[in-house]
Amino acid sequence: MTFGAVAGVIVLTAPQAGAWPSDLQVSGGSSHNVGCSYTLTATVQVDHLLSVSFSDNGTELIGSPVRPSLLSDKVTINWTPSTTGSHTLTATQDLIKKSITVQVDPASSFGSFGCGLNGLLPSLSG
C-alpha cells in the first residue's frame, strides 16, 4: 500500500511534460516591416484546455488569449509591429513560455503594397 501512495504523490507533483508551447514561428521569413501584418503560430502539444497568450517584448499583449482547438495542435494570432528594432515575441501557456526574436525594419517605401512583396519576390527571382 505504501508504494501505491508514493506513486500517486509522484504523479500528482510531476510537471506536465509537453503542456507548454513547444514551437513559435512568425510568418514573413527573415523580412519584417513596421505596419505589415504577420501570423504568429504556436504549437501546443498536450494542453488544449488552457489559452495561449502572445506578447511583444514581454509587456505588450498581442490581441486576446487564444484557446487551442481540440482538433489542432496550433494556435495563431495576427501581429502588426509598430516600431523598428528587435522584437522578442512570446507565447505563454500556464506560465510556460516559448519565444522567438525577429528584427523589424522601417515601413516599406511602397506602403502597404510592400507588405505583400515578402513572399513574392523570392519566387519571382528564382
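^ that was protein a. below is b, sequence first then the C-alpha cells
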Amino acid sequence: MGSGGPDGGQRATAETARVTVIGVGNTFRGDDGAGPAAVARLRARTPPDGTPAGVRTVCCDGDPARLIDLWADAALAVVVDAARARPACPGRIHRLEPGPDTTWPAHTTSSHGLGLGYAVALARTLGRLPGRLVVYAVEGADTSLGEGLTPAVAAALDPLVERVRAEISRTAAALPDGRRQ
C-alpha cells in the first residue's frame, strides 16, 4: 500500500480541517504500516466519499517537524502508530492523551527517527500542540522489511478505526454550532 504522496492523499485542507488524523508509519516495514493502513481503512469506511467535512487524513513518516505542521491548528489531532511493548501482545491498542503536565520520553528513537515523544515535547515548547492530541498505538509483532501486516495487527484495524471515528464524533459535537469545520 503506497501513501499516495507525501501527504497520503489529504482529504481537507489545513484551513478547513478542525480534525486531523495522522497515520504514522512505513508500509514497507510490516506492522510499522499500521498507521497508514488505519487511515486507509478510515477513508474507505466513512461515507459517502471517504472522510467527513472538516477532517483531514494524512500519512506521515513520523518526522517531528512534519507532525507538528500537520497537527498545529487542529482542534483534535489523532495520531495512529505502531508500538513495541514488553511483553508484547500484537494487535493490542493503547490510547494516550497527553495532558499539560504529561512528559513522554523525548530521548527515545523509533523506526521513524526521533519519535513521537520528541515531537510532543518540541510542539509543547513551541506552543504548537493541537487543541487535543490523542495517540492510538497498536502493538506490532514484525517490523522487518516487507509489505503487509501480521494477522493480529490486521485484525485490530476495524476496532481501531471505530475508536478513531468516535473521537472525531465527540469533537465534532463539541465544536461551535455542532459543525465539523
